Amino acid sequence: MVPSTYDGVAAMLALLVLLTEFAMLRAPLLRSQVRLYAFQSLVVTGLATYVAASKHIDELYVLAALSLVLKVVIVPSLILRLLRDADTDLAGSSVLGVASAILIALVVAAFGFFAVGSLHVSSSSLPTSSLAIACAIVLVAFVLIILRSDVVSQAIGFFSLENGVSVASLVVASGLPLIVDIAFLFDLLVAVVVFGVIMRVHHARNATLSTSDFDRLKG
Amino acid sequence: MSTLVIVLVCLPFATAMITWLAPVKLSQYLTMFVAVATFAMALGLLPRTSNEIVTAGSLLRVDALSQVFLLAVTFLYMTTSFFARGYLALGEGANARRYGRRFYAGFNLFCWTLIVVPLVNGLALLWVAIEITTVISALLVAIDDTEGASEAAWKYVLLASLGLGIALFATIMMYYAGTRLHGASYSLSYSTLLSGASHYDPKVVRFAFVLAVLGYGTKMGLFPVHTWLPDAHSEAPTPVSALLSGALLAVSFYAILRFFQIAFLSLGPSFPRNVLLVFGVATLLLAALYLLSQRDMKRLLAYSSVEHMGILAIGMSFSATIAVVGVLLQVLAHAAAKGTAFFGVGSVVRKFGTKDMTKIRGGIGALPWSGPMLVLAVLALSAMPPFGIFRSEFDIVYGGLSQPRDVIVAIFVVLVIVAFFGLSWFTTETMLSADPSSSQISGEAIVVEKGEVSNWIVLSMFVGLVALLILGVHPPAPLVHLLDRAAAELRGGR
Amino acid sequence: MNSVIVSPYGVQAIQVLTILLGAPLVSGVIAHAEGRLQGRRGPRILQPYYDIAKFFTKETIVTNESSWVFLAGPIVAFACYLTVPLLIPVLTTFPLPLGFSGDILGGGFILALAGFSVALSGAESGAPYAQLGSSRAMTFGALIEPTILFVIFAVALITHTDLPYALSATIRSSTSQMVRPSHVLAAVAFFLVVLVDTGRIPIETHSGTLEFGMIDEARTLEHSGPPLALLKWGSTMKQLILYTILINVFLAPWGLAATGKWSSVLLAVAALLGKAMALGLVFAVIDNLFSKLRLFKITEFIASAFLLAVLSVLVFYVGGG
């Protein structure tokens, strides 16, 4: 069964989000990671616009505009400002080499694909591949958070996980009431502020963005 | 009645705003007053909600299940506000004033979000409310600005946010499950979902339920994703620890129960129960073992919370109604008992200046009132009669035996006993051992003078213990009625 | 004359001749464009022909220690490059008689044999740089192999065959095939494979003279005279063959001859060379935009190509797409 052009394009955009996630796994510089996040959010915005245009859901335009402002501009610039203030660390540290990290993430992503695939949801309205890709994005974000040991990468990992969930919501729940979508976005903003505050507290106290000394509390 | 619900939602929020601006002294009394008022209002709602569903607009909805958690949260709000009055030794100076202002604003805001969680109508709003509890409590965990606090706060906010990301995924999948029946655009309100749940695609609901248990389970402290919990509980200021443990974990459990309700109608009883059983047993096992090897007093209580969350999950996996009633009673009793225990520990920590249990000796001697009450609270946590947790765990075990699931019940009882051993061992060591000043073990122990830290602490603990006694000896009839109705709601009734 | 039908075998021969004679031209265009992009005037477009012609007139020098393998390698490789155009859709949309004598795997094997014989020949020279080049070429060749396999899997899944003609026809059939995620991913993965196999930036500086960074180029350092001419010519042919596969199987399988008429076949030749030059320009731009990766970073590059190829297969399995 050949997917329709609509599904194909939607899946391609979702895949682009996934590939950006992989690129984040690869990017050594924190700055480039933030930029990749901005790009990823831009693709998600593009996906929202595309869904809005082809399914004629006008509310999604509002959502796309909001997420453009919030996730492409505000959040990255907030984090970049934090990075400018904390000029101690340019690059985060990764536990594994890039090639091994990508292979692990690939295995994890494959798991996500087959987890969704095993649902056997064969409905005409559901682009299964996009949903599977969303699931893979979430899982790769987990890998990113686990393998990186600095607060910026981990925070970016969380934000990009949220992007993955956005992709899922766009492809399976595009009719979600606008108020709910906005609530989700607003929540993200609050979370970003809190992440930022705690990152600053951490940096002010330890003069580093690394999480390698997060081993005092055990047991 | 719906006005009462609206007032419940608005009042703590307004208080938070006022305490941000007002002087600390005023904030303290205002908070206590509002907290008592909120608890009274929650009690006032009880007669109505145990018979019918109270709604206010399309956004707020209180049924018996919400009412149970509302009671737990507001009760803890009240007792913790007493405790905080005694616990915070705010000196003079700009720093102390700033700390006090931040603390009280954050405290009231946190309680506000905790109250909102059971009141909102619908899975989407539920997610939003729980996300807000996370961000505010993360700031409260970090408020002490120590190295440990920033580490704990980071772990907490990261893990909890990840969990909530998964929970959002679960919410979206649940939404998708309903689109075939309710159309592409509908509100995720409980009544819509519950009315349609039996027609949803079981595969999608199953996926959503597992994701929800994993996601909200992170905040609840279920086994593989509980790791933030002991850190956050031990590093947060003690009033916040009490709220985290007694109320935050409970409302996260509430979120899981909402998914459980839908999954129950859609998938039948066995799948959701088995999922909860697996998580519950693993959680209980882990907590029981960790309880045996703690040095830090607050970590000890944190693992005890993990243990109780495991018990709740196991209790939900039993099919007998009495087990479900037991679970709901346990939510209430745990809130009271864990709050009281944290208050007692707070008193000890203030007195001895450390959380390290190897250094604390002769607690009862040093603290004539809060010492013995701490011992009683720990006994209550270990399910000793005549306190509430004894009754609730008895109900759960009874429900398990009547099913019958003897093996699970046997494992359950053994693990609870192990946990009891861990808890009581350390408490007897620190509280009941001889006074260091009068004996030979004074090598490492800290010698302190006899006397209470604050009478407010004693008051808060006393209220908690009275509640535990009432729940244990003779739960009032309206409450029993409420629990029965809530249990019926969880088993497919509406 | 325009309506004269060429026999299928004739078209087949023209395919080989197109690759054989067109390849140096494409290389010349790329080299010229690169020069322009770098602000130089660049070599003449026909320079590769002059080079090859000149090498044929030079004498061949062989070390005393080298065996016949040293001289046989270039010939075998050249023969391989002459064989592959028989199997792939170079000019026509319809399959030619010999097109079924080997599938996409067969073509891959023949290309691998060519690479292997060149590497063997280089190693046989005994010179350290040539041996270094041979061993590096084989190492990265082995690393890129799984990616190629997954691309082939993806192609096979999409078309249910492993014939290049079939994929070419499938892509032409509709736009939904064109935007199909698994196809796009496989195409991009194959694009990266072509980058690796033709020895372009970011893998190696193909026109450089720094032996440490060389991979493919280093293998031929010890050859001279006609064997060197065959190697140079062969490498341009390999490049055009890979371009042809990329263009006619994955990216833009348009402009092919639908019938055996002279006019359409000639048009197809022009179209192929035009498309190949356009693609070559893309590679030239990439050459200018990126810098060469450190040798140990090449695995990362290959890992990303592998990632794309695997995702392509996964997406197919889950979403049919």
Give the secondary structure arrangement, pairings included.
The complex is a heterotrimer of chains A (219), B (494) and C (321).
Chain A: H1 5-26, H2 30-55, H3 59-85, H4 98-117, H5 128-147, H6 151-172, H7 178-206
Helix pairs in contact in A: 1-2, 1-5, 1-6, 2-3, 2-6, 3-7, 4-5, 5-6, 6-7
Chain B: H1 2-21, H2 24-49, E1 54-56, E2 60-62, H3 64-87, H4 94-119, H5 123-141, H6 147-182, H7 190-196, H8 202-220, H9 228-235, H10 238-267, H11 270-291, H12 297-316, H13 321-352, H14 363-366, H15 370-381, H16 388-402, H17 406-432, H18 455-473, H19 477-490
Antiparallel strand pairs in B: 1-2
Helix pairs in contact in B: 1-2, 1-4, 2-3, 2-4, 3-4, 3-10, 3-13, 3-18, 3-19, 4-5, 4-10, 5-6, 5-10, 6-8, 6-9, 8-10, 8-11, 9-10, 9-12, 10-11, 10-12, 10-13, 11-12, 11-17, 12-13, 12-17, 13-15, 13-16, 13-18, 13-19, 15-17, 15-18, 16-18
Chain C: H1 8-37, H2 47-57, H3 69-83, H4 104-124, H5 128-159, H6 164-173, H7 175-178, H8 181-197, H9 225-251, H10 262-289, H11 298-319
Can you put this structure into words, describing what you see?
The complex is a heterotrimer of chains A (219), B (494) and C (321). Helix content of chain A is 76%, strand content 0%. Chain A is built from 7 helices and no strands. Chain A is globular. The N and C termini of chain A lie far apart (53 Å). Chain B has 19 helices and 2 strands. Chain B has a two-stranded antiparallel ribbon with strand order 1-2. In chain B, helix 11 packs antiparallel against helix 12 and helix 12 packs antiparallel against helix 17. Chain B is globular. Chain C is mostly helical. Chain C contains 11 helices and no strands. Chain C is globular, with a radius of gyration of 19 Å. The mean pLDDT of chain C is 86. At the A-B interface, helix 5, helix 6 and helix 7 of A face helix 5, helix 6, helix 8 and helix 9 of B.
Number of helices, where a helix is a run of at least 4 consecutive DSSP H or I residues of chain B: 19
> Poorly predicted ranges of chain C (pLDDT <50, ≥5 residues)?
none
Number-wise, the strands of chain C total 0
Strand content range of chain C: under 5%
Chain pair with largest interface: A-B, 48 and 54 residues
Oligomeric form: heterotrimer
In N-to-C order, the SSE pattern of chain B is HHEEHHHHHHHHHHHHHHHHH
Uncertain runs of chain B with pLDDT below 50, 5 residues or more? none
